[in-house]
Specification:
Distance between the termini: 23 Å
Largest sheet: 5 strands, parallel
Order of helices and strands: EHEHHEHEHHE
Oligomer: single chain
């Protein structure tokens, strides 16, 4: 049914459950897996609202930290896939809005199913925190499996 599954992860415990489900589904269907993680755009105002530090140094630190974190996240997901004999490619998208990066990666890799985790927040919690999963669901041209 599905031949190329994308799973988005931020390395959190909840996202890990999404990775587990995606790996299990890919194994059962003998599908390929694309694992994507995204770092959000840099914001100097959030890092140092006083403007007292050199923003280029903070930006370099941010990028290095985001890259290292992405490598850890993707290595763990790739190991989980390998343990189930699932072919997995990994993608790190730096400094993009997560929903945009997820949808673009899915299109670029020809994915026919997206897997994402969601806290299932409603009301004010969702409004304040936003929902990348909801943004993907509303804009995706392919099915989205939401794991809670």
């Amino acid at each position: 049914m599905y031949r190329n599954i994308l799973v988005a992860t931020d390395g959190s415990e909840l996202a890990g459950r999404g990775v587990e489900q995606a790996v299990a589904l890919a194994a059962a269907l003998r599908a390929a897996l694309v694992v994507v993680t995204v770092s959000e755009p840099w914001s100097a105002a959030l890092a140092d609202p006083t403007g007292l530090t050199t923003s280029s140094e903070l930006l370099e630190d941010y990028r290095a930290g985001a890259q290292a974190q992405a490598e850890r996240i993707l290595a763990a997901a790739q190991a989980a896939a390998a343990a189930r004999d699932v072919s997995a490619s990994v993608v790190y998208v730096p400094e993009r809005e997560p929903a945009d990066a997820i949808l673009e990666t899915a299109a670029a890799h020809g994915c026919d199913l997206l897997v994402m985790a969601s806290h299932g927040r409603r009301g004010l919690g969702r409004l304040l925190l936003g929902s990348q999963t909801q943004a993907v669901i509303t804009r995706s041209q392919v099915p989205v499996l939401v794991v809670r």
